[in-house]
Amino acid sequence: MMNWDRSWSAGNWVVMGLMMLVLWSVIAVAVVAVVRSLRSRSQTPTEDDARQILDRRLARGDISEAEYAKSRELLHTP
C-alpha cells in the first residue's frame, strides 16, 4: 500500500521548495522593477532644469545670445 495516506514523498518536497524559490524571485524582480520605474520618473528633467542648462551654456559662451533667445522661446512653447 504505497502512498495510502496521500503524504508527500521527498521528491515532492523538493519541487515545493523550488516553486517557493521561484515565487520569491518573481516577487523580488517585481519590486526592483517598480523601484527603478519610480526612480527614473523622479529624475526626468523639468523645464527649469533645461533653462538652467541653457543659462550655463550662454554663460560659458557655448551659444550666442540669438541662439539662447530662440531656445528659450522653444522651451516656453507648449
Q: How many alpha or pi helices?
A: 3
Number of DSSP E strands: 0
End-to-end Cα distance, whole Å, is: 79 Å
Overall 3D shape: rod-shaped
Q: Assign a percent range to the helix content.
A: over 70%
Radius of gyration: 29 Å
> Residue-averaged pLDDT, rounded?
83
Strand proportion, as a percent range, falls in under 5%
Account of the protein in words:
It is a single chain. The chain is built from 3 helices and no strands. The N and C termini lie far apart (79 Å). By secondary structure, the chain is an all-alpha fold. Helix 2 packs antiparallel against helix 3.
Question: What features would you highlight for this structure?
Answer:
78 residues, mainly alpha, single chain, 0% strand, rod-shaped
Q: Layout of helices and strands, plus pairs?
A:
Blueprint: H1 10-42, H2 47-60, H3 65-76
Helix pairs in contact: 2-3
Concise synopsis of the structure shown:
Helices cover 76% and strands 0% of the residues. With 78 residues, the protein is an all-alpha fold.
